[in-house]
Design a protein that fits this description.
Layout: H1 2-24, H2 29-42, E1 54-59, H3 61-67, H4 74-86, E2 91-97, H5 105-116, E3 119-124, H6 139-153, H7 160-167, H8 173-179, H9 181-199, H10 206-213, H11 229-245, H12 266-271, E4 274-277, E5 291-293, E6 295-298, E7 301-304, H13 306-314, E8 323-324, E9 328-330, E10 335-337, E11 342-344, E12 364-366, H14 367-397, H15 404-413, H16 415-428, H17 439-476, E13 480-485, E14 494-495, E15 503-504, H18 506-518, E16 523-524, H19 529-547, H20 550-576, E17 578-579, H21 583-604, H22 606-618, H23 621-629, E18 639-651, H24 653-660, H25 662-682, E19 686-691, E20 694-698, H26 708-727, E21 739-756, E22 760-766, H27 768-783, E23 787-790, H28 791-796, E24 804-811, E25 819-824, H29 831-845, H30 849-862, H31 867-877, E26 888-889
Parallel strand pairs: 1-12, 1-13, 2-3, 2-13, 3-4, 16-17, 21-23, 24-26
Antiparallel strand pairs: 5-11, 6-7, 8-9, 9-10, 14-15, 18-20, 18-21, 19-20, 21-22, 23-25, 24-25
Helix pairs in contact: 1-19, 1-21, 3-14, 4-5, 4-14, 6-7, 6-9, 8-9, 9-11, 10-11, 13-18, 14-17, 16-17, 19-20, 19-21, 20-21, 24-25, 25-26, 29-30, 30-31
Length: 893
Amino acid sequence: MKNVRSVAIVVGCIITLITLGLNAVGSFQWIEDWTIDLRFRYVRWQIEDIGEQIALVAIDDASLDTIGRWPWKRSLLAQATEEIARAGAQTIAFDILFTEPEEDSTGDVELAKAMSQSQCVVALTRRLDIVLDPVWETPLGKMQLAAFTNAVEAGIDRDINVIIEQAALVEPYKAQVLARPTALKEVAAWRTLERFRAQGKLPKTFKEYTAVMLGGNERAEHTREFGEEKMLERIWLRGESWRAVEGTLISDATSKGTPQDLPPIGLIAKAVKGVGVVNAMSSKFDGQFRRLSTYFPTDFGIAPQFGLAAALVFQHQTVNDAVAHENYLQLRNCSIPIRDGKLLLNWPTKLLAGYGNGTDSKAAIGMGRVIGQSIERKKLERQEERLQLLGEEISIGVLGRKSKEWFQSASRDGRLKKEILDTWKSDYEEHVNDPDLDPRLKQAGDGLREWMIAEKAFQDGKAILNAGDIKLRETLGGKLVFVGFTATGVMADMISTIFDARTPGIFASIIVADMVLNGRSLEFAPDWVGPMAIILLGLISTLTGARFGAGIAAIVVFFVLAFYIGVLGVIGFDWGNWICPMAAPVSSGIGAWIVTTVIVAVITQREKQRVTRQFRARVSPQLVEMLSKNPKVLSMGGVEREATILFGDLAGFTAINAILGGPAVVSTLNLYMSAMTKELISRRAYVNKFLGDGILAFWSAFGEEPEQGRLSIEAALACQKIVTEIGKRPDRQGLPIISLRLGMATGKVVIGDCGAPPDLNDYTMIGDSGNLAARLESANKQFGSAILIDGRTAELSKESGLALLSLGRVVVVGQTIPIDLYEVCLEDDPTARIEATEAMVRLFTACQFDECRASLANLLKTLPGSKKLVHAFMDALDNPEDLRDGVLRLRAK
């Protein structure tokens, strides 16, 4: 045993070292991420909302239904921006790409104007698709790209083959240019523009840039159209936009982006206070979104993540106030840990307060409602203008006030409204509907009434608008307001998070902003904690598994791991905001315990395995499976319990044997027995043995089966059905019909291993109920029935609703004690037969023999199929011994 433990300890230590190595190369990272998700979901005991400084204006499904399909006109977004600013929003962060101008520039102008009057941050995007194949990054590739760029600059409108020839491109670069000429020309044009910017020789106008790309000044007067003109214009405008936002980026001469990085259009780029990158990458293992890069390189500098940029503008800081170090991001008010340039999102226990509850949300509101407020405001302005015109007409025509100054003063202080109402009540209210009223007075009265209707509509609209303003101020006032998509349709911007597989992507940036504004971050445990925990838990599990039995070792290891998880994984996470490694240390502990336990068990359980192998050779696989799960259920000496026994016999095989011969008969027999066995086993029967064309099965073989009465009858009916179906198969046509007789009885029997152990034995049952079941199977021949059961079986199945036909008190052949006998009715049994038989049996049992004889005669006449049953009772009526007590005694097998 000592050697066994030594081997187990050595192997356990090896497992610990392997775990340590796998952890060093990051093999456990995806499992660790999963454990972090679990901690976010279930370990936070206190409700934590996103900070009260943040709100969301959501472009949700309701907004799209109200306003219409995206994209919306930017004039609408300008109105929304004005409304958000009017509500008191301190900073507005648009998670919307404004990378392309509208056809009508009016909307762009209006939106830029609205943004310039607020502190706005907009999104820019980095294209993650690779335009240039990695072969261009090789030394030769860089030389070929430079040559190609120079050739394009010498005349971008030339045929691509001419450019390739001038650049002296070789394979595979030539093939790549021919495959994507437009894309590669665009790369070259952008590289040329960037070279001029770096040299301080940037063309002053688009016309100058075009002249350069057409071969130089000697071709500056080129006026004919060429296919690449739109491309050059797009590149020029993109450069202007980048230069407009360059001041919001971190200056870095080594920063390199791609020609596909897209800033907002120039008008908006000049109007905003900051820009941020909205691109995000999910885990390559499970698609879950957990981390974000804080900064992204572009050709014009390093751009911050969108949420970080928004938070900095909200705090009146610049990107230079957030300094990225190797393991943390230093801000003015706090530091946030980062790993490999990415920060772990510190998810709250729920998203924005009330988010998803529609109008009840405290920190989120639909964009449709914001735009609706703007529309309502413009509507009210039109109503006010109409009211002013009506009031001016009335003051002159009805009140006789000629002075415009009086009208303006009276409108402001309420005198105009008072005079109009007084005049209406004193001069017109009682007479306005008088048909004889002077037409001029009637016209004046109609004007007064029209003004009052317009004034009421104005006041109602004003009340609605004021209520909306209050709601917007409560939701957005003084906050950093994010504007972005939460819609679920075609425009869905969804990521997979701990909350949902379809969480709106804007929440990633909201979480980053919340972390920055409120200093919420998670501290990573020092790097030595993980390896130390792996070693300690691995050694503890190894020594425990080698020293103690499997049960004790499992308990000890369980409590050690539970303590580690509880203290460092739960309490440390919830109270200390610590991320301690879980996956590798716990795997080390479990792996070492499993290996050491298995090694000890393999060697120390040899004797038990020898016994099991011997037992497997002597009993059925079904019993072995049960025994392997719970060996105590098997009693080698026998145990007495109530069981339901089924005997079955296939009738008709003698005739088939004469036709088919031995091998075919065996095949046929196997066909029927296999089908019946499946039906029996599926209803928890133990199929004990096959007796030629007979079968023996019983219930409660390994323990009490409370439903054995119902299960046995259902199994019998299923066997009858499957035998009938097999007989109807096309390949069985022309052969004698095979029928099935079944007898079932329930009672006390001894169940155990019987025979001549250890070499020859059989796990079976012994008892009178088994003998009775066999007699009942045979009795089917006397009654012309298919399934007979005793009274105890019927009693156990009385709640099942199965149809049973009582045959009274019967003494079967070979026994002297009467039993209650029942026939199980098949699905196609006629109701008339059942009712007539029950009536006859009641007469026989009541010793009303004359009436019984008459009933039998009628039964035989009306239901010829009951001939055998009628003869059984007729024989009894002709026997004086049976006439004494109404008990039917069978004498033939």
